[in-house]
Amino acid sequence: MPRRIRITLAWDGTDYHGWQLQPGLPTIQGVIEEIVAGIESKPVRVEASGRTDAGVHALAQVAAFTLENPIPFDNLRRAMNRLLPASVRVLRVDEAHAEFHPRFDAVAKTYRYTIFRDEVCPPLEWRYVYHHPYPLDEGAMAVAARVYEGDHDFTAFAAADHRSSGQKDSETEGEPRTKVRTIFSSVVERRGNKLIYTVRGSGFLKHMVRNIVGTLLEAGRGNIRADVFPAKAGRTAPAKGLTMVSVEYADAHFGSDVSL
């Protein structure tokens, strides 16, 4: 009997062109579907809670697929990790209800963006942070971060190719094309030599978090007011500083305590 399977994934996104399948390019969805198809002996569609951009990392992305093979969950996790490249790991495997959809059933997602502030960035940090040693008013950035909390129209913070009314956004394909999102928390804080931006929301548009970070940096440089919701986004921050931290559902929370 077919089972709906929910998996939690972590990956280093440096060498991948994001989650979504792209012809001739390495993607997370591509490597996962190839391995699951081998286990099932036929093509299997694997859906995720969101389509992370090229170069973005994940500590706990949630994906799901339907499998007829009766392989036990622990054996499935071990088999997938044996076949996957070392940069992608399956952290856990769970059974879900038959209609479970990792994107439409999600109630909240959390992302973290890391800015390295010291003059010299260690090579072992470089792949996972945006190195910005230049002067910033970090207090102003902390104030500006709070402005995003609540319900807002984030049209100005979506990728240019998703602002057109002819495009479906990255989190709500098949749903009304509203760009309004609810942000539950938006916080900038200093941790040692890193400035960390953590945002938890109902969903996110393509490039939305990276565009918010670019705008926070403009507030830190004194180029825009920190206490007013911006009408225009700043320059998109580099993908490598962004990590998906967790996905929440009504019945469970999938996250990781591992830090990059």
Strand fraction band?
Answer: 25-35%
Quaternary structure of the protein: single chain
CATH topology of the largest domain: Alpha-Beta Plaits
- Quote the average pLDDT: 91
Sheet with the most strands, sense and barrel status: 11 strands, mixed
**CATH architecture label of the largest domain:** 2-Layer Sandwich
* Helix-residue proportion: 10-25%
CATH superfamily caption of the largest domain = Pseudouridine synthase I, catalytic domain, C-terminal subdomain
Element-by-element helix/strand order: EHEEHEEHEHEEEHEE
Low-confidence stretches: 165-176
Write up this protein.
This protein has two domains: 94 residues, Alpha-Beta Plaits (2-Layer Sandwich); 145 residues, Pseudouridine synthase I, catalytic domain, C-terminal subdomain (Alpha-Beta Plaits). 20% of the residues lie in helices and 29% in strands. It has five helices and eleven strands, in the order E-H-E-E-H-E-E-H-E-H-E-E-E-H-E-E. Strands 1, 2, 3, 4, 5, 6, 7, 8, 9, 10 and 11 form an eleven-stranded mixed β-sheet that branches. A hairpin with a 2-residue loop joins strand 8 and strand 9. Helix 4 crosses helix 5. It starts with a strand and ends in a 5-residue tail after the last strand. 38% of the residues are buried.
Could you name the key traits of this structure?
alpha+beta; Alpha-Beta Plaits; 260 residues; globular; eleven-stranded mixed beta sheet; 2 domains
Task: Summarize the helices and strands and which ones pair or pack.
Blueprint: E1 3-11, H1 28-40, E2 47-48, E3 57-67, H2 73-83, E4 88-96, E5 108-116, H3 123-126, E6 130-131, H4 138-147, E7 150-153, E8 180-191, E9 194-201, H5 208-220, E10 242-248, E11 253-255
Parallel strand pairs: 3-10, 5-6
Antiparallel strand pairs: 1-3, 1-4, 2-3, 5-9, 5-10, 7-8, 8-9, 10-11
Helix pairs in contact: 4-5
